[in-house]
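User: FXL22 protein. Structure?
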Amino acid sequence: MHITQLNRECLLHLFSFLDKNSRKNLAKTCHKLLEVFQDPLLWSLLNFHSPVELKKDNFLLGPALKHLSICWYSERVKVCNTEDWMKNSFQKDFCKRHENTVSDFLLDVCNRCPNLLSLTLSGCGHVTDDCILQLLKNCPNLKSLKLENCVRITDHTLQAVTLHGASLQTLHVDFCRNVTQAGLERVREKCPSVMLRAERSATMIPDSKPEKKLVLEKASRKSVQL
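Assistant: Predicted structure:
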């Protein structure tokens, strides 16, 4: 029995066990399998391991997408998560090559995937508060938002959660150093039903310009002397 003799439900089930590249390669073999590849029901879950994968034409975005994860654990994440004023010219050029990759992709998700239920972002150093705000507005069914080591995320994201996260049940902002204790307390007050986790976030040193850090260090030394 040839694979193309299977009915559509069986083919969708078989495709579901393959990764994105394997699905695309199989879809190239005949029109019937290409139609299966393009079926939105196949793409309810998407996992990406680097921003580079977002540029590959090996997946389909659509209303069927329920769960999305972009987790980048490469050594290069350290470069993107370094304060901008500390980066050398080489590091700045490196970051510019993919600065908007994840953000642009998420905006595309906002427009095409209104039924998204969960989003996990890890190591995405260029994702901004505005991007998360747009996603909360356009994906009203979002129940889980997990952000880890996303250094541009601030209390503005927490405020957006209190205003537009009506369906949110779980919120993680781990190792997001520009999130403050005051912002976390606001979420706890406004959204008591949300399971909030912020490992290390409010205890880490936030980004600031060198002159501001110098003032903080002087103030700290004075308090110690007193």
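Residues 212-217 have pLDDT under 50 and may be disordered. The chain has ten helices and six strands.
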